[in-house]
C-alpha cells in the first residue's frame, strides 16, 4: 500500500468512528432510538442510507464486471433494480411508515407482522425473525469476506487482517451509535460512492479521442457487446427485470422507511434516492464499457473483469485519490454490513430476547442486549468467513431472492389489502421461501438446465407466494373489526 492510499483510508476510518461517537451522544437511550433513530431521519440521510446499504460492493465490482463481459445486455438488471427501487419508494414507503407507528410503534419487520395481524401465537414473528437472522448472518459474512479480499488484493495485507479490520470498524460505530450511526455513515459512504462513480468513468473516458475512438476499440473486442438483446433470451430479460421485485422484501432497506422523520419527507427522499441510484448505476455500467475499450487500446495485462474499478483507480489516479476511490469500495461493503448487523441485532433483541426471555426487560437492559447481539453476529460472520472455500457465499448470493419472495408479497398485501389474514400471511411467507429453495436446490432439470439457470428464482417464488397468500386469506375468517380499523387509520394517515 502506498503512503497516499494509507492516508486516505486512515482518514476514512477516523470519520466513520467519529460519526459513531457523535451518534452515540445524540441517540435516545431507548430501544426505539437505538434501532430506528427515534424515527427522526431526514430525507437525504434516509435516501442515501437506503441506497448505500442496498448497493454493497456489487455496484463497484459486480455490475462493472457484468458490463465488461456481457456488454449492453447487462443493463436489463439495472433497469429492473431502478424500477423496483422507485416502486418501493412510491408504494411501500409511505404506508409502512404510517402503519408501523400506528401499530403500537412496531420497530422491526417481525414486530410489524405480529402487530399487523394480532398474532398471539407468535408464529409470524418466529418464522420471519429466523429468516432474518440466518440470512443476514450469512450476508454479513459475505461482506466481511469481500473486505478481506479487498485488503489482500489492493493493500498487501493478509486476508485475515482484512476480515478483522473491516468487521472491527463496522462493529465499532454500529455498537455504540446504533441506527443513527449506521444511517449517517451510510450517508457519507453514499456520497463517496457517488463521487467515485462519476470520477472514474469520466477520467477513463478522457483517455480516448472521443466516443468514436472508444466504440472502435470495443467493437474490435466483440461487436456483440453493443447489442441490447444480444446473448439474452426473453426469459433472461424477465429474470433480470425481476430483480426489482426483491426490493419489497429487503429488511435492511425498508426499515429506513420506518425511521424517516415524517410522511411528508418521503417524496423528497424518493427524489434524492432515485437520482443517486440512477447516476451511480449509469456510472458503474460506464466503467465496465469503457474498461473494455481501454484494455484493448493499451493492451494492459488485465484478467479479472470484476476488478476493473480497482484497475482504473490504481492506474489513472494519484495515490491520495486512488486511496479515496478504494475507500469507496470499502464504503459500499461496510454500509451493507452495518445495516445487516443492526437488523439482525434488533431481531435478536426484540423478537427473541424481549418476546420470549425477558418480557419486562428495561430499556437499559435491551440496549445492552442489542449491542451484545451486534458483536455476536459479527463474530459468527467472521468465523464463517475464515473458510475461504465455503459454499456459504453461494447461498448468500440467493438471499435477495429469498427475502424478496418470502417478505415482498407479505409486505405489499399487508399494506394494501384489508382482508388479508394471519393464516394467509404465514402461507405466503412459507410458500415464497420454500419455492426459492426448491428452485435452487431441487434436482430438477429442463433440457439439461437447472431451474435457476432458466429463470431467476424470485419470479416463481413471488408469484406462488402471492397466490398462496390470497387463497388462504379468502378461505379463512376475515380480520377483526379492530384490525380493520387500524388499517383504515393508517390509510387515512397516508392520504392526509
Topology summary:
Blueprint: H1 3-26, H2 31-36, H3 43-55, H4 62-70, H5 75-102, H6 109-116, H7 123-155, H8 159-205, H9 211-221, H10 234-241, H11 251-259, H12 266-298, H13 308-316, H14 319-357, H15 363-385, H16 392-396, H17 399-416, H18 422-441, E1 445-446, E2 449-450, H19 451-454, H20 458-475, H21 481-495
Antiparallel strand pairs: 1-2
How would you explain this protein's 3D organization?
The protein is mainly α and 496 residues long. It contains 21 helices and 2 strands. The radius of gyration is 22 Å and the shape is globular. The mean pLDDT is 83.
Main features:
496 residues; mainly alpha; Sodium/glucose cotransporter; 2 domains; 1% strand; globular
Report the average pLDDT across residues: 83
Q: What's the total number of strands? A: 2
Main pleated-sheet profile: 2 strands, antiparallel
Q: Could you estimate the helical fraction of the residues in percent? A: over 70%
Shape: globular
Q: Count of DSSP helices?
A: 21
| CATH homologous superfamily title of the largest domain | Sodium/glucose cotransporter
Q: From the alpha-carbon coordinates, what is the Rg to the nearest angstrom?
A: 22 Å
Family: Belongs to the sodium:solute symporter (SSF) (TC 2.A.21) family.
Catalytic activity: L-proline(in) + Na(+)(in) = L-proline(out) + Na(+)(out)
InterPro entries: Na/Glc_symporter_sf, Na/Pro_symporter, Na/solute_symporter, Na/solute_symporter_CS, Sodium:Solute_Symporter
GO molecular function, one term: proline:sodium symporter activity
